[in-house]
Structures are given as structure tokens and as C-alpha cells.
Amino acid sequence: PDWLKANTKSEIFERIVRERAWEFAAEGLSFWDYKRWNRLERLAGPMKSVIGKTMYTRNVTGRDYLWPIPQNERDRNPNIGKQNPGW
Description:
Elements: H1 9-23, H2 30-36, E1 45-48, E2 54-58, H3 71-76
Antiparallel strand pairs: 1-2
């Protein structure tokens, strides 16, 4: 079947993404996978329960990809420079 096809790097990656979605459904790992893969925008929008009721709406910005650099770390090391964008 076509969904098993994985001959290129991008096809293999898409297969891994799909497999993790099935393997870890409802375990709360998808957010971190999508963050690591720079795909958080795919999770933006209304999040629905199993009965279709909107529970909340997730907004995604560039800030969601980076943690803030603690001020005490920036004070100790002048080479760090500016804070991460959005923080």
C-alpha cells in the first residue's frame, strides 16, 4: 500500500511521524514531537474532545519554539547576548 511506501528521506520521515501519532495517541507526546520537528503550526486551532466539543484553541507563535534564557545566566555570561525572540 502507498502509506507503507518509504523510499526517500522525506517519505521515511513522514512514516515516522505517522507511526508516532498512532503509537503514542493520547499520551501527550505529540506537542513535543511537533516542536522538535518545527511543525507546531499544525497543532494550532481548536482542540476538540472525542465527542467533537471544542475544549480550547491553541495559538502558536515563533516564541513557542524557544525557552527564555534565565536572566542570571545572561548576567554571568556576556557572550550570550540578547534574549530569545518573544521573551
